[in-house]
Design a protein that fits this description.
246 residues; binds adenosine-5'-triphosphate; 2 domains; four-stranded antiparallel sheet; globular; Rossmann fold
Length: 246
């Protein structure tokens, strides 16, 4: 089966000297929550920039739903929903207005739009906020509106760049729950960039990014057994240790 996202030998540099990403390769399968785990400066946002075509890779290929982002960008980008790190809703429009406008941009007809928005607001427990201006919503609810917006066109792949930045602990947990349910209930493939270990669950896949390179990929139990660690935090420490260090 075609992976929802396949990245092969991706390389990128911002300029002379050094690289932001080198030889990055991994896949995100249908219905899987994949955590792109890395410390500050690991290259997570750079990778997100390549996946969304903000930057062009120096080397390698990105296939989204089997479509090559370089050669078939329209089809590739249509197969993906994105939640960027910085919120981008219009605060003075209502929740429904924000979603209606985005649905138009995604090419949904008026007849398709209303039921799709109703379904998504219900899905993310926002039905009673539909007529409120976004300005009145707390950070967690705003993020859920962004999730709904990213899913309007029913993409098989959802990518999120550190989406819990600025949220309090309950809202963070709530968002992580909602997105995991998208995988298990709806079969959406998710790539979730984070540096927070507690956002990763035992059944998730992990792509461990360190200084622009993938140090390990696999399920959580697999990473623990390979590194002989008891926790993901310890496994991260072991797998990112410079060679030759005890
Ligand atoms: N616009 C830029 N110009 C030059 N170098 C950059 C630029 N953006 C990022 N970098 C560098 O590229 C590397 C990867 O940065 P990136 O922002 O992708 O990491 P990150 O994992 O997203 O970190 P964070 O969690 O802090 O957002 C870092 O060394 C960073 O300094």
């Amino acid at each position: 089966m075609t992976a929802a996202l396949a990245v092969d030998q991706l390389g990128f540099s911002y300029g002379k000297g050094g690289f932001a990403l080198r030889g990055v390769a991994f896949a995100v399968e249908t219905g899987r929550f994949t955590a792109l785990l890395g410390a500050n400066g690991a290259g997570k946002s750079t990778l997100m920039g390549l996946l969304t075509r903000l930057f062009t890779p120096d080397t390698g290929a990105i296939l989204i739903g089997g479509h090559d982002l370089r050669h078939r960008p329209g089809a590739a980008l249509a197969a993906m929903g994105v939640v960027f790190q910085q919120p981008t809703l219009d605060l003075d429009l209502t929740v429904r207005q924000n979603l209606t406008y985005a649905a138009g941009l995604r090419g949904l007809s008026a007849r398709q739009t209303a039921p799709r928005i109703t379904e998504l607001l219900d899905r993310f427990a926002l039905s009673d906020r539909a007529g409120d201006k976004v300005r009145l919503l707390n950070g967690g609810h705003r993020r859920r509106v962004e999730l709904a917006r990213a899913l309007l066109h029913r993409p098989p792949l959802l990518i999120l760049d550190e989406p819990t930045v600025g949220l309090d602990a309950p809202s963070r947990c709530d968002l992580v729950d909602h997105v995991h349910r998208l995988c298990t209930d709806d079969g959406v493939a998710v790539l979730w960039a984070t540096h927070l270990f507690d956002e990763v669950r035992d059944g998730d896949d992990v792509v461990l990014l360190h200084r622009g390179q993938v140090r390990a990929t696999g399920g959580v139990p697999d990473l623990l057994s390979r590194s002989g660690a008891g926790t993901l935090r310890e496994a991260f420490g072991t797998l990112t240790r410079p060679e030759g260090t005890p």
